[in-house]
Amino acid sequence: MQNLPQLNLPSFSSKIEWIQNNRCIWDIIRKQYVVLTPEEWVRQHFVHLLISHLNYPKGLFRVESNLKYDKKRKRSDIQVLNAAGNVFLLIECKAPTIKLNHNTLKQLSEYNKALEAQYLAVTNGLKHFIWGYDKNSQKYRPLTDFPNYTVSKNSL
Fold this sequence. Notes:
By secondary structure, the protein is α+β, with helices and mostly antiparallel strands. Helix content is 22%, strand content 37%.
């Protein structure tokens, strides 16, 4: 990965270093440098969007968190918790070259079986989709905007 692609997300001041022959980026959630893959570039942009533009507190994030469903162990890209400690927003990140398709949605929905998030999102940094759970219909419906943190506080 030579040049970092321009994403359809707000830019941020990233800290990028070469560590043991790997290009790494500082992760403000994990508080360490992580290898800068195309997917990580998207993940870091998305984390910064949520914190800097939608007012999510850093302390509510889980990044690459383990989860278990159907006796399988997987890792979700981003989980944002509400004040009660439940997963409020589950986000699946893909590299910008990966098309968001049925398989991406299937992966997200499988993860959500274990987490039951109120909001689901997928992004490849260029396109983003978000769904919110409608209690009346008991289904997820597409949304046009990402919920800001004040919605999270009121959803307890």
